[in-house]
Amino acid sequence: MAPGGAGNGITLQQLRYFIEVAAEGSISAAADLLYVSQPTMSAAMKELERRAGRALFTRSTRGITLTADGTEFLGYARQVIEQAELLEQRYLGRPPSRRLLGVSAQHYSFVVDAFVRMVKASGAAEYEFSLRETRTWDIIEDVRTLRSEIGILYRNDFNRKVVDKLLRDGGLGFTPLFLATPHIFVARTNPLAGRERVTLDDLEELPRLSFDQGTNNSFHLAEEILSTRSSKQDIRVSDRATIFNLMIGLGGYTISTGIISDDLDPSIVAVPLDVDERIEIGWIGHTSIPLTGQAERFVAEMREVVADFGVELFS
Protein backbone atom coordinates (compact mmCIF):
# COMPACT_ATOMS: atom_id res chain seq x y z
CA MET A 1 0.00 0.00 0.00
CA ALA A 2 1.33 3.44 -0.90
CA PRO A 3 2.01 5.91 1.94
CA GLY A 4 -0.97 8.12 2.76
CA GLY A 5 -3.60 5.78 1.29
CA ALA A 6 -4.36 3.00 -1.19
CA GLY A 7 -5.08 2.98 -4.89
CA ASN A 8 -3.96 5.26 -7.68
CA GLY A 9 -5.86 8.40 -6.72
CA ILE A 10 -4.86 11.28 -4.48
CA THR A 11 -6.24 10.88 -0.95
CA LEU A 12 -7.58 13.44 1.50
CA GLN A 13 -4.89 12.42 3.95
CA GLN A 14 -2.17 13.24 1.43
CA LEU A 15 -3.76 16.63 0.79
CA ARG A 16 -3.89 17.37 4.51
CA TYR A 17 -0.25 16.39 4.85
CA PHE A 18 0.65 18.53 1.84
CA ILE A 19 -1.13 21.62 3.20
CA GLU A 20 0.70 21.32 6.52
CA VAL A 21 4.10 20.78 4.87
CA ALA A 22 3.55 23.83 2.66
CA ALA A 23 2.57 25.93 5.67
CA GLU A 24 5.57 24.86 7.77
CA GLY A 25 8.14 24.79 4.96
CA SER A 26 9.47 21.63 6.56
CA ILE A 27 8.53 17.97 6.34
CA SER A 28 9.84 17.24 9.85
CA ALA A 29 7.93 20.16 11.39
CA ALA A 30 4.72 19.10 9.66
CA ALA A 31 5.25 15.51 10.78
CA ASP A 32 5.63 16.63 14.39
CA LEU A 33 2.45 18.70 14.25
CA LEU A 34 0.45 15.83 12.76
CA TYR A 35 1.99 13.17 15.02
CA VAL A 36 3.41 11.02 12.23
CA SER A 37 6.97 9.95 11.63
CA GLN A 38 9.21 11.96 9.33
CA PRO A 39 9.84 8.98 7.01
CA THR A 40 6.07 8.47 6.67
CA MET A 41 5.50 12.13 5.85
CA SER A 42 8.41 12.23 3.39
CA ALA A 43 7.19 9.09 1.63
CA ALA A 44 3.65 10.46 1.46
CA MET A 45 4.86 13.64 -0.21
CA LYS A 46 6.96 11.75 -2.76
CA GLU A 47 3.99 9.55 -3.55
CA LEU A 48 1.76 12.61 -3.91
CA GLU A 49 4.19 14.14 -6.40
CA ARG A 50 4.28 10.85 -8.30
CA ARG A 51 0.50 10.75 -8.50
CA ALA A 52 0.29 14.42 -9.45
CA GLY A 53 2.86 13.80 -12.18
CA ARG A 54 4.95 16.86 -11.36
CA ALA A 55 7.31 18.31 -8.77
CA LEU A 56 5.40 20.18 -6.07
CA PHE A 57 8.39 21.07 -3.86
CA THR A 58 11.88 22.40 -4.26
CA ARG A 59 14.03 20.76 -1.58
CA SER A 60 17.17 22.29 -0.07
CA THR A 61 19.18 22.17 3.15
CA ARG A 62 17.11 25.12 4.43
CA GLY A 63 13.82 23.29 4.00
CA ILE A 64 11.31 23.09 1.18
CA THR A 65 9.46 25.64 -0.91
CA LEU A 66 6.63 25.24 -3.34
CA THR A 67 7.27 25.12 -7.08
CA ALA A 68 4.94 27.04 -9.39
CA ASP A 69 2.95 23.82 -9.86
CA GLY A 70 2.98 23.30 -6.10
CA THR A 71 1.56 26.76 -5.46
CA GLU A 72 -1.32 26.12 -7.85
CA PHE A 73 -1.83 22.63 -6.40
CA LEU A 74 -2.04 24.10 -2.88
CA GLY A 75 -4.97 26.29 -3.84
CA TYR A 76 -6.93 23.32 -5.15
CA ALA A 77 -5.94 21.17 -2.17
CA ARG A 78 -7.38 23.76 0.20
CA GLN A 79 -10.61 23.81 -1.79
CA VAL A 80 -10.95 20.04 -1.68
CA ILE A 81 -10.27 19.81 2.06
CA GLU A 82 -12.70 22.63 2.82
CA GLN A 83 -15.45 20.93 0.83
CA ALA A 84 -14.74 17.56 2.45
CA GLU A 85 -15.01 19.13 5.90
CA LEU A 86 -18.28 20.82 5.00
CA LEU A 87 -19.60 17.45 3.84
CA GLU A 88 -18.56 15.81 7.10
CA GLN A 89 -20.20 18.55 9.14
CA ARG A 90 -23.46 18.28 7.19
CA TYR A 91 -23.86 14.53 7.02
CA LEU A 92 -21.67 13.06 9.76
CA GLY A 93 -22.45 15.61 12.45
CA ARG A 94 -18.82 16.53 12.99
CA PRO A 95 -17.98 19.87 14.61
CA PRO A 96 -16.88 22.77 12.37
CA SER A 97 -13.23 22.61 11.37
CA ARG A 98 -10.56 25.14 12.28
CA ARG A 99 -11.11 28.20 10.07
CA LEU A 100 -8.15 29.46 8.05
CA LEU A 101 -7.57 32.68 6.09
CA GLY A 102 -4.63 34.94 5.34
CA VAL A 103 -5.12 38.52 4.11
CA SER A 104 -2.45 41.06 3.11
CA ALA A 105 -3.47 44.66 2.55
CA GLN A 106 -2.45 48.24 2.20
CA HIS A 107 -3.31 50.33 5.26
CA TYR A 108 -7.11 50.67 4.99
CA SER A 109 -9.35 50.85 8.06
CA PHE A 110 -12.27 49.39 6.10
CA VAL A 111 -10.22 46.20 5.68
CA VAL A 112 -9.72 45.98 9.44
CA ASP A 113 -13.42 46.65 10.00
CA ALA A 114 -14.36 43.89 7.54
CA PHE A 115 -11.83 41.54 9.11
CA VAL A 116 -13.37 42.09 12.55
CA ARG A 117 -16.84 41.37 11.17
CA MET A 118 -15.59 38.25 9.39
CA VAL A 119 -13.99 36.85 12.55
CA LYS A 120 -17.15 37.50 14.60
CA ALA A 121 -19.42 36.06 11.90
CA SER A 122 -17.33 32.92 11.49
CA GLY A 123 -18.69 31.51 14.72
CA ALA A 124 -15.72 29.15 14.80
CA ALA A 125 -14.52 27.70 18.08
CA GLU A 126 -11.08 27.35 16.52
CA TYR A 127 -9.51 29.52 13.83
CA GLU A 128 -6.21 30.77 12.48
CA PHE A 129 -6.60 34.08 10.69
CA SER A 130 -3.87 36.50 9.69
CA LEU A 131 -4.08 40.14 8.59
CA ARG A 132 -0.87 41.75 7.34
CA GLU A 133 -0.90 45.49 6.68
CA THR A 134 2.23 45.69 4.60
CA ARG A 135 4.03 47.11 1.57
CA THR A 136 2.60 46.90 -1.93
CA TRP A 137 5.34 44.59 -3.24
CA ASP A 138 4.94 42.30 -0.23
CA ILE A 139 1.18 42.10 -0.71
CA ILE A 140 1.70 40.81 -4.24
CA GLU A 141 4.39 38.37 -3.08
CA ASP A 142 2.25 37.13 -0.18
CA VAL A 143 -0.58 36.26 -2.53
CA ARG A 144 1.68 34.87 -5.25
CA THR A 145 3.27 32.45 -2.77
CA LEU A 146 -0.08 31.79 -1.02
CA ARG A 147 1.13 33.13 2.29
CA SER A 148 -2.13 35.05 1.99
CA GLU A 149 -5.11 33.98 -0.03
CA ILE A 150 -6.11 37.49 -1.05
CA GLY A 151 -4.56 40.96 -1.02
CA ILE A 152 -6.11 44.43 -1.00
CA LEU A 153 -4.52 47.31 -2.93
CA TYR A 154 -5.33 50.15 -5.28
CA ARG A 155 -4.81 51.04 -8.93
CA ASN A 156 -5.13 54.30 -10.80
CA ASP A 157 -4.10 55.66 -14.19
CA PHE A 158 -0.55 56.30 -12.94
CA ASN A 159 0.35 52.87 -11.54
CA ARG A 160 -2.01 50.60 -13.48
CA LYS A 161 0.47 49.31 -16.09
CA VAL A 162 3.15 48.49 -13.49
CA VAL A 163 0.75 46.85 -11.03
CA ASP A 164 -1.01 44.86 -13.75
CA LYS A 165 2.31 43.55 -15.08
CA LEU A 166 3.41 42.42 -11.61
CA LEU A 167 0.08 40.67 -11.13
CA ARG A 168 0.17 39.07 -14.57
CA ASP A 169 3.74 37.81 -14.04
CA GLY A 170 2.63 36.24 -10.74
CA GLY A 171 -0.45 34.55 -12.18
CA LEU A 172 -2.68 36.93 -10.23
CA GLY A 173 -5.78 38.90 -11.14
CA PHE A 174 -7.34 42.13 -9.83
CA THR A 175 -11.05 42.27 -8.96
CA PRO A 176 -12.32 45.85 -8.41
CA LEU A 177 -14.36 46.58 -5.28
CA PHE A 178 -15.12 50.29 -5.56
CA LEU A 179 -13.95 53.60 -7.02
CA ALA A 180 -13.00 56.15 -4.37
CA THR A 181 -12.72 59.93 -4.51
CA PRO A 182 -9.40 61.04 -2.95
CA HIS A 183 -9.55 62.50 0.55
CA ILE A 184 -6.97 63.63 3.04
CA PHE A 185 -6.88 62.14 6.52
CA VAL A 186 -6.08 64.65 9.27
CA ALA A 187 -6.56 64.92 13.01
CA ARG A 188 -9.85 66.38 14.22
CA THR A 189 -7.80 69.22 15.73
CA ASN A 190 -6.29 70.19 12.37
CA PRO A 191 -7.57 73.55 10.97
CA LEU A 192 -8.45 71.78 7.71
CA ALA A 193 -10.68 69.24 9.46
CA GLY A 194 -13.75 71.45 9.24
CA ARG A 195 -13.38 72.30 5.55
CA GLU A 196 -15.83 70.98 2.97
CA ARG A 197 -12.88 70.24 0.70
CA VAL A 198 -9.20 71.13 0.40
CA THR A 199 -6.82 71.82 -2.47
CA LEU A 200 -3.21 70.81 -2.98
CA ASP A 201 -2.22 74.40 -2.22
CA ASP A 202 -3.83 74.05 1.23
CA LEU A 203 -1.39 71.21 1.96
CA GLU A 204 1.82 73.04 1.02
CA GLU A 205 2.90 73.82 4.59
CA LEU A 206 1.83 70.54 6.19
CA PRO A 207 3.99 67.42 6.67
CA ARG A 208 3.07 64.78 4.09
CA LEU A 209 2.85 61.32 5.64
CA SER A 210 3.23 58.20 3.55
CA PHE A 211 3.85 54.50 4.04
CA ASP A 212 7.40 53.30 3.51
CA GLN A 213 7.83 50.79 0.67
CA GLY A 214 11.24 49.47 1.71
CA THR A 215 13.83 48.21 -0.74
CA ASN A 216 11.22 47.89 -3.48
CA ASN A 217 10.36 51.56 -3.22
CA SER A 218 8.92 53.02 -6.41
CA PHE A 219 6.50 55.81 -7.21
CA HIS A 220 4.36 53.17 -8.91
CA LEU A 221 4.22 51.06 -5.75
CA ALA A 222 3.44 53.94 -3.41
CA GLU A 223 0.29 53.49 -1.36
CA GLU A 224 -0.72 57.11 -1.90
CA ILE A 225 -1.68 58.82 -5.14
CA LEU A 226 0.29 61.88 -6.33
CA SER A 227 3.47 60.28 -4.99
CA THR A 228 5.62 62.11 -7.59
CA ARG A 229 4.47 65.53 -6.36
CA SER A 230 7.18 67.30 -4.36
CA SER A 231 6.62 68.22 -0.73
CA LYS A 232 8.58 70.49 1.61
CA GLN A 233 8.15 68.08 4.52
CA ASP A 234 8.00 64.33 4.01
CA ILE A 235 7.74 61.61 6.64
CA ARG A 236 7.56 57.91 5.85
CA VAL A 237 6.19 55.44 8.38
CA SER A 238 5.63 51.70 8.53
CA ASP A 239 2.29 51.31 10.30
CA ARG A 240 -1.14 52.90 10.54
CA ALA A 241 -1.02 53.66 14.28
CA THR A 242 2.13 55.73 13.78
CA ILE A 243 0.75 57.67 10.85
CA PHE A 244 -2.34 58.59 12.87
CA ASN A 245 -0.21 59.65 15.84
CA LEU A 246 1.81 61.92 13.55
CA MET A 247 -1.38 63.46 12.18
CA ILE A 248 -2.28 64.37 15.75
CA GLY A 249 1.20 65.30 16.99
CA LEU A 250 2.57 67.12 13.93
CA GLY A 251 -0.56 68.17 12.07
CA GLY A 252 0.38 66.01 9.10
CA TYR A 253 -1.84 64.50 6.43
CA THR A 254 -2.01 61.52 4.12
CA ILE A 255 -4.10 60.89 1.02
CA SER A 256 -6.42 57.91 0.92
CA THR A 257 -9.94 56.70 0.14
CA GLY A 258 -11.96 58.77 2.57
CA ILE A 259 -13.38 55.66 4.22
CA ILE A 260 -12.48 55.63 7.89
CA SER A 261 -14.12 53.99 10.88
CA ASP A 262 -15.19 56.28 13.72
CA ASP A 263 -15.10 53.26 16.02
CA LEU A 264 -11.53 52.27 15.11
CA ASP A 265 -10.05 55.72 14.43
CA PRO A 266 -12.14 58.32 16.32
CA SER A 267 -9.45 61.03 16.31
CA ILE A 268 -9.08 61.16 12.51
CA VAL A 269 -11.38 62.71 9.89
CA ALA A 270 -11.50 62.56 6.10
CA VAL A 271 -11.80 65.70 3.98
CA PRO A 272 -12.37 65.57 0.17
CA LEU A 273 -9.33 66.56 -1.89
CA ASP A 274 -10.04 68.70 -4.95
CA VAL A 275 -8.08 66.79 -7.61
CA ASP A 276 -9.01 65.14 -10.88
CA GLU A 277 -8.09 61.64 -9.69
CA ARG A 278 -9.86 58.44 -8.72
CA ILE A 279 -8.66 55.49 -6.66
CA GLU A 280 -9.75 52.01 -7.74
CA ILE A 281 -9.66 49.66 -4.75
CA GLY A 282 -9.80 45.91 -5.30
CA TRP A 283 -8.62 42.51 -4.17
CA ILE A 284 -6.06 40.27 -5.83
CA GLY A 285 -5.88 36.48 -5.97
CA HIS A 286 -4.63 33.65 -8.15
CA THR A 287 -6.44 33.59 -11.48
CA SER A 288 -6.40 29.78 -11.62
CA ILE A 289 -7.51 29.14 -8.02
CA PRO A 290 -11.05 29.83 -6.78
CA LEU A 291 -11.47 31.52 -3.41
CA THR A 292 -12.21 29.39 -0.38
CA GLY A 293 -15.52 29.95 1.36
CA GLN A 294 -13.82 31.86 4.17
CA ALA A 295 -12.17 34.23 1.69
CA GLU A 296 -15.50 34.78 -0.06
CA ARG A 297 -17.06 35.68 3.28
CA PHE A 298 -14.31 38.22 3.90
CA VAL A 299 -14.88 39.82 0.49
CA ALA A 300 -18.60 39.99 1.25
CA GLU A 301 -17.86 41.73 4.56
CA MET A 302 -15.66 44.28 2.78
CA ARG A 303 -18.46 45.03 0.37
CA GLU A 304 -20.88 45.55 3.26
CA VAL A 305 -18.50 47.85 5.13
CA VAL A 306 -17.92 50.00 2.05
CA ALA A 307 -21.63 50.07 1.20
CA ASP A 308 -22.33 51.45 4.69
CA PHE A 309 -20.35 54.55 3.69
CA GLY A 310 -22.54 55.09 0.64
CA VAL A 311 -19.74 54.28 -1.80
CA GLU A 312 -20.82 52.71 -5.09
CA LEU A 313 -19.51 49.18 -5.47
CA PHE A 314 -18.49 47.40 -8.65
CA SER A 315 -20.95 44.61 -9.41
From TrEMBL:
One of its GO terms (cellular component) is protein-DNA complex. One of its GO terms (molecular function) is DNA-binding transcription factor activity. Keywords: DNA-binding, Transcription, Transcription regulation. InterPro entries: LysR_HTH_N, LysR_subst-bd, WH-like_DNA-bd_sf, WH_DNA-bd_sf. It comes from the Bacteria. It holds the Pfam family LysR_substrate. Residues 10-67 form the HTH lysR-type domain. The keyword Calcium does not apply. Belongs to the LysR transcriptional regulatory family. This is LysR family transcriptional regulator.
